Amino acid sequence: MLKRKFRKEIRSRLVKQSNQQRLRKSRLIKKRLFNLAEFKRAKCVMFYIATDEEVETRFMILEAQKIGKRIAVPVILRKEKKIIASLIEDMEKELAPGLYDIFQPQSKYIRPIPYKSIDLVVVPGLAFDKEGRRLGRGGGYYDKFLARLPLGIPRIGLAFDFQVLKDLPVLSHDIPVTRVISA
Predict the structure, then answer these.
(1) Which of 6, 9, 109, 183 could be disulfide-bonded to 105 (CB atoms 3.0-4.6 Å)?
(2) Domain-wise residue ranges, the chain
């Protein structure tokens, strides 16, 4: 019940934020992410493809590719109720709306990679707290994915300042992130 209340409140604030504010803050977040030692070391980074309200990741993906990083993105497998990581090469050509209208590789471009090939995961969330606990959209896809990742792989949450709360209600299956970057 409490999670539902948080989700509703954060969604409302996300929708009220102008696209100009969203992009300005996303650029600040990108700068902070790209300056992290863990990001600089990473050869393969998994990014999420942002929805219209989230911290924008598309320009981050393009820049990361330009500096030589391999990029993976999530593919939602509805029947299995899970996410797999798939390498992408050309976002414009390969991505299309998938489940929940979230962009993901079209089936002919799905190139699954093993978890151990990923050096860093950029994680979406509706809200995070100071301990790295994460409130997702309620499907459990990312929690299942993060639970399967080898422990040493950094999990970086991206958020706007109002999405970082003092404390969040969590359940035993909720997987925290290593760090949250916000602006």
Answers:
(1) 109
(2) 2-182
